[in-house]
Amino acid sequence: MRTAIALGIVALATVLSVVFAAREQDLIKDLPGWDGDNVMYAGLMEVEPKYGSNMFYWLTLADEEPENKPVVLWLTGGPGCSGLLGLMSEMGPFFAGPDNKLLPNPWGWNTLANMIYIESPIGVGFSYSHNTSRYNVGDQQTAEVSYAFLLEFFAAYPELAENDFYITGESYGGHYTVNLSAYILKMQKQAAAGSPAFPNSFKGMAVGNAWTDAPLDNMGCVLDWDSHTIISEDVAKGLLATCDFAHIGPFAAAEGVDPAACNKYYNEAMTQMGDITIYNIYWPVCLSSSEITGQGHALYRALAQGPETDSAAQLGRVMDKLITMQQRKLADAAAAAAAVGPAPPPYDPAPVCVSNYLTAYLNDPAVQAAIHAPKLPYAWSGCSSIVKYSYPDLLASVVPKYLDDLFPANIRVRVYSGDVDGIVPTPGTKLWIDTMNLTVATGGDFRSWTDPFNQVGGWTTTYENGHGGEFMFSTVRNAGHEVPEYQGPRAWTYIKAFLDGTDLPAPTKP
């Protein structure tokens, strides 16, 4: 069976050889645990010859007519988390499952576009450098190296270079997507003066649950926790009154703040929440978690690297410790849970413990050989522990780049938010959008939109961007931080409308 399918993959790849012959060595010919007929390429591309820096990528071709379909780059956040999390737990053609099996994802974005997943910045996953100083990185370097990858990618796949190109991402991808988009636009202007640049057909950017403006995003955490009643009113008021997050976020700056009291209330908030999945407050907890691959934990670990006396670093250390303790407690509970029986089934094809499964899968030597991964002196991890991210960049707002770089270029810009995410929640996104003082576009008033089953998929508003174009903000109903993982059909509907340049489907009228 597998041999026949593998031959089918090779045959299909041969049909496309005119397009992809330049990277034939990267063709995935037989992927362990998968019986699908997707055509995929994976491997390394050198992005900084001066330093010997190599970026790992995985390309999944569109199921039909890939030569005519858009090219979509996916950027997972963190900072320092792998794009393969998106591939194998969100919108790829499969989900990682138990026993190194890959489970079909009927709502993969490969049904709509050619999807590129990269491990960025250098030092994440299989991406590495011979000069380890490149693991000290910030937003600008990440954008420049990602752009260097795009130059190499489109040179290797020239028949895709003129296809419509889009950037997507989530979480700290709120920085990655915006900064890379701004850098591409800058390089295109320089190209107009005579130097070549890719991609020539950059059309737009969409980002979900986007870390954008630290004080406002984190203020949104308290507002969200309070509104969902997962912390008490007293604790919410205490956080707002005692925490000075004017520099780091979460909450409103307050006079006479007390860092010790702030940490006390933070500890109380974590205790009151209990052992929930903070990325989706209504989702089952994986009791066998053995590795932190969460983008929110990666952000707190990065914050913890700051100066000893800095309030942001203090918060990062508190949260890193609390999440690590929760993880250990859940791991200790796994044996007891096993005696009771299996966990309740998830409400979506993505398995509850998908992060565990993909970590085991990508550390399998047979899998690494199949995807042309390098042999590194450490195990693959969903979120890097060797990347040291710029502390000032973590706390910087990218709202000015929307206003000064993206909106004037009139590219398609859309932001979406899973409305049960507790780590970069919807209220914070609404706060930073409000600071842009945009006007609601004609016909863009707040309304519900529908998914493929004619259920409410969320709510949406379209604004004028001030330069003759539009900016859309939408929520995705009952979706967590990683929207496609929890609500595949709704995420698929959203991204299809984004790529088509259309509005989200309106409710069917009786």
TrEMBL record:
GO molecular function annotations of the record: serine-type carboxypeptidase activity
InterPro entries reported for this sequence: AB_hydrolase_fold, Peptidase_S10, Ser_caboxypep_ser_AS
Coiled coil, from the record: none
UniProt keyword terms in alphabetical order: Carboxypeptidase, Hydrolase, Protease, Signal
Lineage: Eukaryota, Apusozoa, Apusomonadida, Apusomonadidae, Thecamonas
Any one biological process term the GO annotation gives: proteolysis
NAD keyword on record: no
Family annotation (SUPFAM superfamilies): alpha/beta-Hydrolases
Protein name, per record: Carboxypeptidase
Signal peptide residue numbers: 1-21
Keyword Hydrolase tagged: yes
Pfam families: Peptidase_S10 (PF00450)
Enzyme Commission number(s) of this protein: 3.4.16.-
Family of this protein: Belongs to the peptidase S10 family.
Organism the protein comes from: Thecamonas trahens ATCC 50062
Enzyme class: hydrolase
PANTHER family per the UniProt record, alphabetical: CARBOXYPEPTIDASE, SERINE PROTEASE FAMILY S10 SERINE CARBOXYPEPTIDASE
